[in-house]
Amino acid sequence: MGGFLTLLYKELLRFWKVSFQTVAAPILTTLLYLLIFSHVLAEHVQVYEGVKYTAFLVPGLAMMAMLQNAFANSSSSLIQSKITGNIIFILLPPISYVEFFAAYVLAATFRGVVVGLGIFLVALLFVSVPVNYPVWILLFALLGSGLLATLGIIAGIWAEKFDQLAAFQNFIILPLSFLSGVFYSIHSLPNFWQHLSRFNPFFYMIDGFRFGFFGVSDVSPFTSIAVVCGCFLFLSLLTLHLLRTGYKLRN
Amino acid sequence: MVPAIQISQVHKRFGAVHALRGIDLEIQQGQFFALLGPNGAGKTTLINILAGLSRADTGAICVMGFDVTKQYRQARRAVGVVPQELVFDPFFTVREALRFQSGYFGLAKNDQWIDEIIHHLDLGEKANTNMRALSGGMKRRVLVAQALVHKPQVIVLDEPTAGVDVSLRQGLWQFIRKLNEEGHTIVLTTHYLDEAEALCKQIAMLKQGIIVALDTTANLLNRFSGRSLTLRLEPAQLPESLHRLLTHQEKELFTLSIADFSELEKVMVELRLAKVQILEMELNQPDLEEVFVKIMSKQ
Ligand SMILES: Nc1ncnc2c1ncn2[C@@H]1O[C@H](COP(=O)(O)OP(=O)(O)O)[C@@H](O)[C@H]1O
Ligand SMILES: [Mg+2]
Asked: What residue numbers bound the domain in which A26 lies?
């Protein structure tokens, strides 16, 4: 087993050993959102023709949870190792910066996807959700989680304290994911907010993901995938650059 | 034979602090080498650069001929570092920590060597204990074990015996000595100078980021710290001819500095001629502490 596989295995084990907190808890939280919002709003809102509001909510909520958990996984793993100092155990061996990057992204993506799948399966107990284009679903699930996993690495490298990481999460990740059309279609927004949403990459992740289920979306899934891929590429290159130069990790 | 460690013109700054100011150092394979210096001299900074945990501003370090940044894979395989800080991963037991550390070096079937390290470092009883539950001394042993999982040719120990009890110290040095006899190059930093004196053949002293002394232990001891002789005399009077050797007097106790044993002979003769009787005599061996203090106060 090479250094990369060991690191990947360790990162997977790290969240899997506490899967009650890292997988079960976000699934439960998301289901509570689903039950409460659908109960309150189901009678009043119809976003797409022939799609029940409760069903409409499922992909958006699932995606939001995937993104948040992918981010949480890589960022918290890194900051914990940094603060306890045991990050040296992976900095001393001959693991390349690309392997380092890949291991953290893959493990965090995996957690994101497991959480998303869990939400989807449990939601099916309450509401039926069509699956029109599974390939789009998978593509957006993987790319979205990967993107946030990458962002998590950046945050984990940059932050020196837990509260800096919490700030990153509360002031960037959370607003962007809430304002991305999880609970509504952006077409229902006033013009100004509609335009603003188009600058939010999270919007494209959720819109494209939802397209895979319902076959309808606010923008073309090709546009969405292009935006998501572009962002992923940009952040990956940035992260690889940070890792290669040893920014903050090998100061 | 390529040197185990070759350091050339290494500079490192932390903001206004110039932690390393042009370090040049070559350590040959098979050496048992001490890097000494007061706190803040730059020892850990130098080790971190050597291990790839930090980068030099300018200059280069090669381990077994491999540049630590350009050929980092080979360089890191060649070196095992025991860090100064007592760090551990609370996620693992001792054995798991060693298995994962092996895995990071790409060594899958390493259990035989891991067992051997566990045995030599006396970790057997704690092998399946979580890292969190270990005492400080035990954690230190695991750090040593982790540094050795990939059988590195060069072993660097940054204050490995700080806060460690005597029996562990002895056990640790016995094991490290064995590794040195098998051909591993050992570099250590310590504040216990008697330890360095007993173990290391070569010594570099670092002060404020500069190497201020570099020699064999024997040469340093001879050059900076002659032997001294303390005598209690009756009558309490030193013959005129011996005054040039006197370094210290306290009542009837006279301390003379002598260069070597032939001078001892001369002192005896002079005393006999002067009919002075020796009531007590003590010959003091040179010691590294004295050398260290002298060198550090010189610059
Ligand atoms: N990460 C850092 N940031 C700022 N200053 C540092 C850092 N690491 C070391 N220093 C400074 O560099 C100098 C050398 O430190 P160090 O290498 O730890 O010394 P030693 O190990 O010999 O006690 C000290 O003045 C220390 O304060
Ligand atoms: Mg130090």
From this structure: 2-245
